[in-house]
Design a protein that fits this description.
The complex is a heterotrimer of chains A (54), B (251) and C (209).
Chain A (H helix, E strand, L loop, with lengths): L5 H6 L4 H38 L1
Chain B lengths: L4 H4 L2 H33 L13 H28 L2 H33 L7 H22 L3 H34 L13 H33 L4 H12 L4
Helix pairs in contact in B: 2-7, 3-4, 3-6, 3-7, 4-5, 4-6, 4-7, 5-6
Chain C lengths: L1 H4 L1 H22 L3 H22 L3 H8 L2 H7 L4 H30 L4 H28 L6 H28 L5 H30 L1
Classes of the chains: A mainly alpha (54), B mainly alpha (251), C mainly alpha (209).
């Protein structure tokens, strides 16, 4: 294990901002993309159901 | 091997197949990401020169790789779509583009976050960063062209041709940017060329790249399903699907 | 015949080129040393933008009056007809810029041999701009907002031409040989000459169908 404590891990040798910003942004983009696609699918299904009921 | 490829290339049959494939790829992506992050943060040693900041490469390099791979795969689907006049391949190309653009953006931002502590500036006109920026423009052009053409058939084919033109140009652009870079900067900054990279660092990067790849497949399949629903709204199979949806049958 | 049908295009293109390249000294300041160091890049970028202005009109008139469909059905190969259209576009929008550029280069305090290289580089490079631009024009034919879209599609593809073209002038300014740059520029144009008419023809078929 590389880290002496959790706080050392979160500190990232003084580069906490850069490292966690990078990983956070990547995670955020991916989560957002999945959520956006789920919404898009739900919306598409809703519209087809409206069409089908007509 | 006697698989009827044409059967799977129609949206009607591909839609449920993709639905079955998505969880597999999503789980693979999640497992690989956990493994990659564990190797990247817990096993890989601290870098001599860059300290802990180098750990950004575990997202930066895989994102940069994927941004290029996705463009090539996209152009491949586009070529198949043009040659065989296959709807599904054009839809796949269209489904890949936004994910590729997002990875390009991630590569750019993380590259700049890496550059700040290492070189003291947010942006250097390094050959790789510059090419990545141009790749982003190519993705945005593709997306803009497809979204501004109303007729989906024409949008498919125009986008496919643009992707092919782009893929022919990418090596030329990369070469020209490299040439420009060596003229103007010398070799003072050489990004990403780690002389002695520990094997665990490389392994972590590879596993993260695989995780991103699986994520890309899962997300592209999700998007292609959306595109199918939106395009074929009036066709019978979509109507049936939505009737099942009303009845509470999940597909 | 084609060339004179669009006399206003020549004027617009030239005027645009002139204005854009006059804005930079006003924004940056009149020191000759600064101006001559930015001149290659500025003049090339201005040439790229000026050439792009008229791209949307490359096929638009033929598309509107139906003669484009005649072209698609013509016995001659479409790529050849397209090449003729592109050559006409270059004569209208490329060549005048090439001829005007040395005069603007003088305003930027470029030395004589650099001016010569500038003209030569533009002569080699602007055909590639028209050729690549034609693909974008054909793809966006009849699309809403096509002017902006063409810029988005075509400008990234112009980058190699910009790099080699401006590099040639800069090399001659620094007393180096610009031959490598010029050869690469010629290679870009040749490659575009081979591939672009075919790609444009394919794009036209897609857009007109």
């Amino acid at each position: 294990m590389q880290w002496e404590s959790w706080s050392a891990f979160f500190n990232m040798g003084g580069y906490a901002f850069y490292v966690w910003f990078s990983f956070g942004l990547t995670a955020l983009c991916m989560v957002w993309e999945v959520i956006a696609l789920r919404k898009r699918r739900a919306e598409a299904l809703r519209l087809t159901q409206l069409l089908a009921q007509d | 091997m006697n698989i009827n490829w044409f059967k799977y290339s129609s949206p009607q049959t591909f839609y449920p197949l993709a639905g079955k494939m998505i969880p597999w790829f999503a789980w693979l992506a999640a497992i690989l990401a956990v493994a990659g992050l564990y190797i990247g943060f817990a096993i890989a040693p601290t870098d001599f020169q860059q300290g802990e900041a180098y750990r950004i490469i575990f997202v930066h390099v895989p994102a940069a790789w994927m941004s290029m791979v996705i463009y090539i795969v996209m152009a491949g689907w586009a070529a198949i779509g043009l040659a065989l006049n296959a709807r599904l391949s054009a839809m796949m190309a269209q489904a890949l583009a936004p994910t590729g653009a997002i990875f390009t953006l991630i590569a750019l931002v993380t590259g700049s976050l890496w550059g700040k502590p290492m070189w003291g500036t947010w942006w250097v006109w390094d050959a790789r960063l510059t090419s990545e920026l141009i790749l982003l423009f190519l993705y945005l052009g593709f997306i803009a062209l497809q979204s501004s053409i109303d007729d989906p058939r024409r949008a498919d084919r125009a986008g496919a041709l643009l992707a092919l033109v782009g893929v022919v140009n990418v090596p030329i652009i990369y070469f020209s940017v490299k040439w420009w870079n060596t003229l103007h900067q010398g070799s003072s900054i050489n990004m990403g060329a780690a002389p002695k990279m520990a094997a665990t660092m490389l392994l972590g990067m590879l596993i993260m790249a695989l995780a991103f790849w699986m994520y890309t497949v899962a997300v592209a399949l999700m998007r292609v399903r959306c595109i199918m629903l939106e395009r074929e709204r009036t066709s019978d199979w979509v109507k049936e699907l939505s009737v099942q949806g009303i009845a509470g049958v999940k597909s | 015949m084609l060339a004179f049908r669009r006399r206003s295009d020549v004027a617009t293109t030239l005027f645009f080129f002139l204005i854009v390249s006059s804005l930079f000294p006003l924004g940056i300041g009149p020191e000759p040393a600064v101006l001559s160091s930015i001149a290659p890049g500025v003049l090339w970028v201005a040439a790229l933008l000026a050439g792009m202005l008229s791209l949307t009109r490359l096929f638009a008139a033929d598309f509107a009056d139906g003669s484009l469909e005649q072209m698609l059905l013509a016995p001659q190969p479409l790529a050849l007809l397209v090449l003729a259209k592109i050559f006409a576009h270059w004569l209208i929008c490329g060549l005048p810029v090439v001829l005007l550029a040395p005069i603007i280069g003088l305003q930027y305090a470029l030395p004589n041999d650099a001016l010569l290289v500038l003209v030569f580089a533009l002569l080699l490079g602007t055909p590639a701009l028209s050729l690549i631009g034609a693909i974008g024009a054909a793809l966006t034919l009849g699309v809403r907002g096509s002017g902006l879209l063409v810029a988005l599609l075509v400008l990234p593809l112009y980058i190699p031409v910009l790099i080699f073209g401006a590099g040639a002038v800069a090399a001659s300014q620094h007393g180096m040989s610009s031959q490598a740059h010029l050869s690469l520029l010629a290679a870009c144009s040749l490659l575009a000459l081979v591939l672009a008419p075919m790609a444009t023809a394919a794009a036209l078929r897609i857009s007109v169908e």
